[in-house]
Amino acid sequence: MHTGDKAFQCEICDKWFSRQENLKIHLRIHTGEKPFKCDICYELFRQSGGLKRHMRIHTGEKPFKCDLCDELFSESGTLKRHVRIHTGEQSFKCDICDKRFNHSGTLKRHVRIHTGEKPFKCDICDERFSDSGNLKRHMWMHTGEKPFKCDICDKRFSDSGSLKRHMRIHTGEKPFKCDLCDERFSDSGNLKRHMRMHTGEKPFKCDLCDERFSDSGTLKTHIRIHTGEKPFKCEVCDKRFTRNDSLNIHTRIHTGEQPYKCEVCDKMFSQSGSLKSHIRIHIGEKPLKC
């Protein structure tokens, strides 16, 4: 309508629209209907535009170019946000902690840290998420879908970010540097966790025993001490473990693998701890006192 009137109302949330077609698209938020399907990875979308943008992931098409650094982007919105890196513009401010952001969506997601809001729920296991992207990646855990493939080693990933991080294994790229010790990392998350080694920060607390941890993965593993959960099973003898690395060490019993070698006498060991204990024979170290 040219008058700006909004004559079409959503009966579920009372939001108004100027065109019936816009109301029809909006209703898919409530119904969950996603009529547009990607023929390559079968991901579903509510709007044709969403499918069109998604297809650029597979085709590699990046029609939007930054005039300042010539970097290319698949979406105009991503380019717009990128330009703010050059301009330093951060016009969106959190009213709770005054932290500023260069995008309204980033601010909206940030505020959920303070409110604890997790509006996105997995229909399979009921786990909730503060971000739709996290839910989307989580769903692939249930479906086993991995639409992103490494062209070098053919390993597949459930999201483009994981593929991008994986590629650094092949390229050796480590773009994230610690300002305190100059150690470099291929992933920003690894740098963030590393920084806590310097700061001593342990933001993750166990609700059962109040022990604190520097990263969520260690907390998740610790929780299994209380629950007794052992998700990692040996395929040879069915013995179960709380940690994947414990399973890997155990598996060497069956395979006979001994990756740790004594540099003095060339004796081989299946565990680093066994090698460490063995080394004391050569150096005469006796750390255990009666």
Automatic annotation (TrEMBL):
Keywords, comma-separated and alphabetical: DNA-binding, Metal-binding, Nucleus, Repeat, Transcription, Transcription regulation, Zinc, Zinc-finger
Coiled coil, from the record: none
SMART domains referenced in this protein's UniProt entry, alphabetically: ZnF_C2H2
Pfam families linked: zf-C2H2, zf-H2C2_2
Source taxon at top rank: Eukaryota
Major location (coarse): nucleus
GO molecular function: DNA binding; zinc ion binding
Residue ranges occupied by any C2H2-type domain in the UniProt entry: 8-35, 36-63, 64-91, 92-119, 120-147, 148-175, 176-203, 204-231, 232-259, 260-287
Subcellular location: Nucleus
Protein's GO biological process: negative regulation of transcription by RNA polymerase II
One GO CC term on file: nucleus
InterPro entries assigned to the protein according to its UniProt record, in alphabetical order: Znf_C2H2_sf (IPR036236), Znf_C2H2_type (IPR013087)
Similarity comment: Belongs to the krueppel C2H2-type zinc-finger protein family.
Protein name: C2H2-type domain-containing protein
Organism: Sinanodonta woodiana
Species lineage: Eukaryota, Metazoa, Spiralia, Lophotrochozoa, Mollusca
